[in-house]
Design a protein that fits this description.
Structural class of chain B: alpha+beta
Largest sheet of chain B: 13 strands, mixed
Number of domains of chain A: 1
Number of domains of chain B: 4
Strand order of the largest sheet of chain A: 6-7-8-3-9-10
Helix content of chain B: 40-55%
Largest interface: A-B, 28 and 22 residues
Radius of gyration of chain B: 34 Å
CATH architecture of chain A: 3-Layer(aba) Sandwich
Distance between the termini of chain B: 35 Å
Shape of chain A: globular
Number of strands of chain B: 25
Number of helices of chain A: 7
Shape of chain B: elongated
CATH superfamily of chain A: P-loop containing nucleotide triphosphate hydrolases
Strand content of chain A: 25-35%
CATH class of chain A: Alpha Beta
Strand content of chain B: 15-25%
Oligomer: heterodimer
Amino acid sequence: MIELKNIERYYPTGAVKTYVLRYINAHIAEGEFVSIMGPSGSGKSTLLHILGMLDEPTDGEYWFLGEGVHKFNERRRTEMYREYIGFVFQAYHLIDDLTVYENLETPLMYKKVPSGERKSRIADILDRFNMVAKKDLFPNQLSGGQQQLVGIARALIGRPKLILADEPTGNLQSPQAKEIMEIFRTLNKEDGVTIIQVTHSEENARYGNRILHLKDGRVENEELIKNGASS
Amino acid sequence: MISNNLKLAFRNLRKQKGFAIINILGLSVGIASVLLIFRMVQFELGFNKNFKQHDRIVRVCTQEKGLDGQESFTRGVPIPAMSEIKNTITQFAATSRIKENWPTVLVPNPNGGAPLKKFNTEEGEIALFAEPEFLTIFDFAWMAGNQDNILKEPNTLVLSQKMAEKCFGGWQNAVGQTLLIDNEPMMVQGVIANASPQCDFPINLLISYQTLISNPDKYDYRDDWGSTSSNDQIFALLNNPAQFQEANVAVEKVGKKQYVDESGGQSSYKGHLLQPLSEMHYDDRFGTFATHVISKSRLWVLSSIGLLILLMACFNFINLSTAQALRRSKEVGVRKTLGGSHSALFGQFMSETAMIVGFSVLLGTCLAWLGLPLLERISEVPTDLPFLNQPVLWIFIPALALVVTLLSGFYPALVLAGFNPIKALKNDLFNQASSGNGLRKGLVVMQFLIAQALIVGTIITLGQLDYLRNMDMGFRKELVYTFNMAGDSIAQSRMSGFKQRLLQIPGVESVSFSSDQPSSGSTWMTNFAVGRGTDYQRFNTTIKYGDADFLQTYGMKMVAGRWLEPSDTVKEYVVNETMVKKLGIANPEEILQQELRMGSGKWRKIVGVIQDFHAHSAHHELEPMTLSSNLERFYVTGVKIKPQNIKATTEAIQKVHDETFAEQVFDASFFDEQIADFYLDENRFSDTCKGFGAIAIFISCLGLLGLATHAAQRRTKEIGIRKVLGAGVSGITMLLAKDFLKLVLIAIVIASPLAYYLMDKWLQDFSYRIDIQWWMFVLAGFAAILIAFLTVSIQSVKAALANPIKSLKSE
């Protein structure tokens, strides 16, 4: 599904180049659950942004579903977001002015899903996440865990093939974090959604089937996890 | 999607109430200004379009150029020239000679005795002597009477509906009745509809031109190539509008030979030209009858002011929206990752703008409606003219809303929709958002530039008006009560008795009869010669007639010789200082006892030189003047009254007048009020500057308030740190205010020369004017800085007083 070839990302600082990513090569198949780990400044977030087509590599090639992302224009990227990619953020990034229901509806509207289907899809997902009673609340009326549930629901509602999560549990208490990770695993196992997450937590990383350890912009090593997480 | 966008927009408005209020207030005031100005401009531009053949109607006018190069223009045409034009110009399908007239109208009592009603021609109305073709050229709607054989016989007339109602209580029964027009009986042949308010022909009476021709003495109808009165005019209907140039060339040739003979070589050029009806309302060289003239350039100035004010309001919107963009950045980032395209986001922000503009249009329309009465102070638009039920507004208002939405919303929406999503999500947009900083500063400078120019304009117009009010015109204008009299022989025979009775009133100091007031709107000029046997002078003299009490009543002074002795006919002359100077005589005494002749009149001695006084408004230079006494030319009574019991005195004067001249209408006013009326237009202009200057300041300050609020919010953390480091409230206030004051200063520097240039041009219109002083700019600048500082301080002080712990914790 994803093919990274010699991805580099650097910024010119004066005469020297400051490298954020160097010679990243990776292949991620459909149905995988990959965790990216590494210390602060190792380039995890940049890599995730490049994967999410929010940032462009300075060098190298990125192939997504057999298409060269480096050739995409803004419109094609927008199509990717509509059809294939869902984002989950550490800070949730719900739209404050919209209710839970409206936050969930937004990607469907961009996707031009007809109104009847929108209603049923939202009803389904609210049901699945046990949030039916909360649908008319605004984000600031929810707890962090609940907000992140909405965030994930919003990422899922467009039925993406790939979910990119940037420290999805970074702001959460551990019981809530665990709940979120369980959802990810279910999504991956039962719905076959490919998931790539950036995380600091070894425990969370082990929910996936593979860990990429980044250091100073390079992939230091790759770790394969048998049977996923500790349970 | 659209309904969703509007819902969102509405929520966003509620959330950012402060900024929404600033935006809506600013825009609605701007929109209200534009609507009011549109009303004025549209009103003025719509003049005389009500006549079906308006594009074929022309007026023949006269242009003269003196040997000194002075050009003069008049709408008047000599009577023989009119006949020639009527008979020889083939491009004209119809012509009508007319003569302006302001008669006293009496409704006689059929049983004899005192008339039933009497009135003078009202302000803003005109009576015309006119030929039957007048009604062919101008298609006034017929209300009553047989349209054939109208205005063909002497002493016949047509009334306007309003006049018919005034005279007979209803227009239906007017036809066939008789009216006394300046004591001449005339038969009503028909009634025409009232002229539209957007028409330069507010006619109350149309009297047959034959009346004039059959009684030339009474109406001063003289077959004389040398005399041009602005009252005698000729209108024509072109066969087709394309023949304008052809006809213009043809009328130019009229009178070529006669004018050279008549002027005795005095003018280098005299000839005729055509004025299309479409220009009549806008060309003050020729003027209209009783309505106002407004120059196209004034309409341009007004339109530009409206446009500038609207732009200022849009600038506020742009400034606030781009400054606020940071707040919306997260939303933009999220929406983009959810598949929101550039155009979808652009659409979302544009619909937010559209909603704000929609509210503003509603509020602005209400404001404009409330402001309608104010229009009367700065324009001639009648208050009863419909406002919203004009179809043109139904197009104009939506179009305005669209333009304002685009002007205000386009740039901010482009900026917001263009945010890079990662930076937006990281709130790392400082560079992107501050790139609009230069633009915002530029727009603030523009706003204050406009405001500053208008403040300077206000100060200068007020200064000039004050100067005009207090200008020494060379005579006393206070406490002189004046009114018109009929110039007929009956009235003349009663004058001396009338004067004696007036002088018996305790409050009356002196009484004078004259041709007009020392300063008035009318001009009477002639050629003249000084020194028996010499040729005519190369310049003309103004003539005024006054009796022996003229000097004392109006408080003028002699510089040499003496004032005129009582006389009913021209026996001797007094000239003014300018005349002496223009004749090249150094000592006024030297001109005394010399003989002077006006036109082809008799030689009479000059007995005195009067100190210069202004015969016209300050727009005109002092002119050479000759004064004499002539009972036949006395049309105005001036009564100098004592300051005590003014009301009783004026009432007594009216009583004596009404008893002496039962058939005349008493319409008196104080001389100083008449002088003030000279400057109605200047007062309007000053009020326009004042009003729109205030609006400009208001809008600029709203914008500044918004930007200062934003700056204070953005710098909360910095302010917190500075306070912890020991900065005081005043220091922080200055820190925030400084940035804005700099912009205002730049605006002042740019605006001053601009305002100087424009106001200097305006002042050039006055022959007597104030000098533009440096302090006017300093004063205006101080005002702008003070207002700006106060506005910014509201926010800055609030920010400076905030507890630093709170602001530092927020990170």
